[in-house]
Amino acid sequence: MVSYIVKRLLSLIPVLVGISLITFLILRLTPGDPAEAYLRLSQIPPTEAAVAAVRAELGLDRPLPVQYGEWLVKALTLDFGRSYATHRPVWDEMMLLVPATAQLAGVSLLITLLISIPMGIFSALYKDGWFDNFCRLLAFTSASTPNFWLGFLLMYFFSLKLDLLPTLGRGSWEHFILPAVTLSFAYIATYIRLLRTSMLENLDQQFVLYARARGLKESWVIGRHVLKNAMLPVVTALGMSIGHLLSGSVIVESVFAWPGIGRFCVSAILNRDYPVVQCFVLMMSFIFVIANLLVDIAYAWLDPRIRLKEES
Amino acid sequence: MAATKKQSNKFRQFAALVVSLILLVSLAAGCGSQTNKETSKEKVLNFSWAKDVGPLNPHLYSPNELFAQAMVYEPLVQYTGDGKIIPWLAESWTVSPDGKEYIFKLRKDVKFSDGTVFNAAAVKKNFDAVLANGKRHDWLAFVRQIKETQVIDDSTFKLVLKDAYYPVLQDLALIRPIRFLAPSQFPESGNTAEGIKQPVGTGPWMLSEYKQGEVAVFVRNPHYWGTKPNVDKLVVKIIPDSESRVVAFEKGELNLIYGKGNISIDAFKQLQASGKYETKLSGPLATRALAVNSNKGATKELKVRQAIQHAVNKEAFIKGVLFGTEHKADTLLAANFPYCNLGLQPYEYSEAKAKSLLAEAGWQEVPGKEFREKDGQVLEVEFCFPSTDAIQKSLAEVLQGDLKKIGMKVKLTAEEPGAIFQRQKDGNFNLISNDTWGAPSDPHSLVGSMREPAHADYQAQLGLPMKAEIDRKASAVLVSTDEAKRQELYREILTTLHEQAVYLPLSYLTNIAVYSKNITGVTFMGSQYEIPFDKMELQ
Fold it and tell me: Which chain B residues are closer than 8 Å to A184 by Cβ?
């Protein structure tokens, strides 16, 4: 197991280098000059001399392999350069913003699990009952509700009309409720349906019949036998969701003025802020890969039939 | 049977969970409303901005936000809305007859917000820091013109230029890069391009609290020489989304929305119609205009360009798209700008006139066809605009509809801003959005930039037979020391551009303000980027 994890971690290196190289090249291929974008951002007309000065200042006038090589060497020491837009070290910016996003993602994930797991279980146990139908309706609604619209709706009712919750920003834990609920909404329905299907499949299995035949308590059968197996697809989805929650929270962050990484990176893309985009992509790739690894480990734990192939 | 019982137990547990969650939320809500209703005797003005105010370095650009820089730092002279320059940190000034030397007498009662004295040495130190980073300020001709800075005595500062350059005072009134940081806050190296210690200026406000990307709090500068602000605290909340800003305002978490583009025009109209708030509109601050390329395709012809001027129903556009929040523009620069009150004859809206101009140019209607043709070619122009701008998108549709009426086909090209800038530089457009600079930079910056190939202005004018003449006059006007001659040169340049129809002015951009009824003293400044918070009063 340990050597498997070590191997997987080592295989991360070429993956991340590859991703960074592809990101680097794609960024250079997109139209738009970062030096010019910077000047426009500053409301400075981009005269040739000004563009040249900024290009030299940002090191964009050097050959591409040199630029990439230098970036890579520095990146190894977590020095991702300075943001073109804010002039602060990219890593510092990330460390300032990532916790906000991570907290939001964490709370959303918690809400998702707290709501979807019981609901998924009951949906399956009372298949085709009113509760199951309600969950189905919820799934349809959530799949077709845009994030930003739901965000505004919640903000409008709970904050403006009912005056129950703060509208925007970050401070106390009440600030988490609206953005986290908005963010979890889409996931909740997915998880309910996923767990329901998986539960139903497992309930039909022979081992369930056998467990019941042995006279085990129903809660024991559901909890220890069915649920544990039924959680496998949920764990997979969870692995992907962590990455998505961290990288895709931009709309929710904008709507609720949440000072997180999502909106910082979107403006970085628009501003051609290469160092920020490169660092962000690398960081997210890292999180995705690690989440995948954790999923694999969780699999082995949940289902002993799945053995991590140490020799592979 | 047993199973069903177990299941119903489960259900009860689940119901309990749901109830506890609801309770949790209500509890949270309870706490929330308590904190919201916290009262304080302090007069706090809550404002919001889409971006973080930045490190507030007076000598640098993005991510420093202009309005915040203007709160902390002051200029030597101030630009008023009617095109005049008034004394500010400089009480008076004299200009040598050759226009190359400026001597400024500084106010003696000025202190920085940390209590240190503002004097000629501080002025020189700031000027020198700007000059040391000269390349970055290359866009500003004034900085390129500075030859020398001298301290004559404690309250006298002298500026020596390489050549005469008349808009010195206008450029000194700009929010950046020439405003004054306390010498105590310079970095060890003296190079402010590397950063500053703390944002300490002579302005009415000082930064008291700052959380990057969340909030910036400003309080009164206790040493301020002028009238101190009425409110005790100004809280700038960073809210990137304009609709969220409106909700926060309606909820009372903000008392003021100010500036162009901070909320949608729909929202402005809705807030205005509610009758619950005060709204205000500034005078013309810049011009929303399109550059019409005299060097490409159908718009090479003067009559086609003139036909476009007559065909566009600006009033309908302002009413329908801008909900009347901007004023109609007949000329490229509004008459309230210096040298711009020229009494030029507007191109009146007339479909018939536009049609006859096209016919004169040889573009004839073809029976059974929608668009005019000449030598088998369809009359088509391309309008390029940034896809991210909602107003430009609506404008594109208006333009397309109006020009279709006179038999002109408009190809709409929406691209991301970077690509549009590229087109402005290489002249690959017939029509392109090209707003003017605004006060206090116009008209001199606009006229100056006409000589730069990287500007849409240059590209659009390239097909004019008198382009070289325009450039020559533009260069002459900037160095002329004779007021009457300058007026004459501006008259010639602006009249030619008007007659040649290389710009389609649509409306004059305005700043908007929406505020709660307990605020008074909301006014507008000459520059669109400055917000006079210090004049506002909270009841």
Answer: none
A 10 A CB-CB count for B378 gives 16
On whether both A34 and A172 belong to a single domain, the answer is: no
Parent domain of B318: 286-509
3-state helix, strand, coil in chain A (%, to 5): 75, 0, 25
The answer to whether residues A108 and A27 belong to one domain is no
Domain tally, chain B: 3
Domain stops at, among B129, B156, B189: B189
8 Å CB contact of B138 and A47:
yes
Query: Do residues B263 and B47 lie in contact, with contact meaning Cβ atoms separated by under 8 Å?
Result: no
The chain B residue lying nearest A166, using CA atoms, is B32
Q: Is the peptide bond before B204 cis (omega within 30 degrees of 0)?
A: no
In a domain, A214, yes or no: yes
Q: Output the pLDDT for position A243.
A: 80
- Does any domain span residue A245? yes
Measured CA to CA, the distance from residue B62 to residue B67 in angstroms comes to 12
Asked whether residue A141 falls in the same domain as residue A58, the answer is no
Asked whether residue A49 is domain-assigned, the answer is yes
**CATH code for the domain of B480:** 3.10.105.10
Of B135, B237, B455, the CB nearest to A169: B237
Confidence of residue A166 (pLDDT cuts 50, 70, 90): confident
Closest CA to A20 of A74, A100, A58: A74
Domain of B231, CATH number, reads 3.40.190.10
| Res B128: pLDDT | 95
Q: Give B432's pLDDT tier (boundaries 50, 70, 90).
A: very high
Looking at the DSSP bridge assignments, the partners of residue B90 are B106
Domain membership of residue A30 as a residue range: 2-75
Query: Where residue A301 sits, what CATH number does that domain have?
Result: 1.10.3720.10
Interfacial A residues in 83-102 facing B (CB < 8 Å): 85-87, 96-97
* Contact indicator for A259, B213 with CB cutoff of 8 Å: yes
Pairwise CA distance, residues B58 & B174, whole Å: 11
% of chain A residues with pLDDT over 90: 13
Label residue A212 by pLDDT band (50, 70, 90): confident
**Are A159 and A225 found together in one domain?**
yes
Residues B377 and B501 in one domain: yes
Q: E strands of B323-440, at which residues?
A: 327-328, 373-374, 377-378, 380-386, 409-415, 431-433
- Per mean pLDDT, which range of A303-307, B120-124, B411-415 is the poorest? A303-307
Low-confidence winner among A24-28, A45-49, B313-317, B502-506 (lowest mean pLDDT): A45-49
In total, chain B counts a number of residues equal to 539
Measured CA distances, A33 to A25, A39, A66, B433, B469 (Å): 14, 10, 18, 20, 32
Say what the pLDDT of residue A309 is.
Answer: 57
Cα-based angle B227, B231, B237 (whole degrees, multiple of 5): 125
Does residue A82 fall inside a structural domain? no
Residue A33 contacts B, CB cutoff 8 Å: yes
Q: Which residues of A touch B6 (CB under 8 A)?
A: 217-219
Task: Locate the DSSP E strands across B124-276.
Answer: 146-153, 156-161, 205-211, 215-220, 233-238, 256-258
pLDDT of A216: 83
What's the total number of domains in chain A?
2
Residues A97 and A65 in one domain: no
Q: B502 — contact with chain A (CB < 8 Å)?
A: no
Does B259 lie at the interface with A, CB-CB under 8 angstroms? Answer: no
Residue A18: C-alpha distances to residues A65, A223, B162 (Å): 14, 43, 53
- Minimum mean pLDDT range among A72-76, B280-284, B386-390, B519-523: B386-390
ipTM rounded to 2 decimals: 0.81
What's the CA gap between B127 and B123, in Å, rounded? 6
Q: Is residue B64 part of a domain?
A: no
Query: Based on the domain organization, do A110 and A19 belong to the same domain?
Result: no
Where residue B31 falls among pLDDT bands split at 50, 70, 90? very low
